[in-house]
Amino acid sequence: MYRSFLGFAFVLATTLVAATPPPKGTLVIVGGGGMPQPILDAFLSASGGKGGVVGIIPTSTSDPDGALKEWKEDLEKAGLVFVALDVRAREQASQPELLERAKRCTGFWFSGGDQNRVGDCIVGTPLQWVILERYAAGAAIGGTSAGAAIMSKVMLTGDDRHGKNEWAEFGPGAYRTREGMGFLPEGVLVDQHFLRRSRQNRLFSLIMERPDHLGLGIDEATALVVKEGKATVVGNRSVMVFDPAGMTVNGGALRDLRVHVLRTGQSIDLTTRKVAP
Questions:
Q1: Domain of 183: which CATH number?
Q2: 238 carries an active-site annotation
Q3: Could you tell me if residue 9 is inside a domain?
Q4: For this structure, is 100 an active site residue?
Q5: Are 42 and 224 in contact (CB under 8 A)?
Q6: In the annotation, is 145 catalytic?
Q7: From start to end of 161-229, where are the E strands?
């Protein structure tokens, strides 16, 4: 009887997950190092264009006032409404007035800086839940650098486990992770400044730890625009995709890892992992 109950529970859980509709919103995940106009246009359009309401979250940056000022000018010039979601301490992410402002937003932007500040101040708070609800309903979510790192459920902190620089370690367990905002589908990892800062070792290491995950390495001045499970490259450089389906790991060695380098206009289905065109 106990086994029957477990079987029923598994089927029920699987059915509930399958019944959950995909988010209606759009992700604009920028690898840092500047934002060409086509990337900005993609984010503003996905946020509703003129009349859209964009919440700016400068939590990661060391200059939140500067980030808010710059975005206010840019958004108002483009005909969108600016909303400050200025969270600098965890308790602020539960304030009713701030949550009400967030519920009005048709787009959200996470600034660059230190992604751990988002982990400390926003992950697991009511503000995260509101943003996830708005994304499910059709809102856009964008971010650059640290604002890209926060997109996945498993988030790179930027530190290795031995306190050395990012080029020094390689292999399973080499890099620290923590829970991110979880906008990308479960089982997708993301890293930023990828080729420019030679961060292949970080994503290699995470894939060796999690061979069921898909790795996305986004270079500078480049973005992945994700809509209905399809991720399309926009911008000046490349996105590297690490697909470990069929990969084998033996200690610090790996074999048969599929690697794609995608340029502007190319896309990958995050569910089937098929690349087009």
A1: 3.40.50.880
A2: no
A3: no
A4: no
A5: no
A6: yes
A7: 175-179, 188-191, 214-218, 222-227
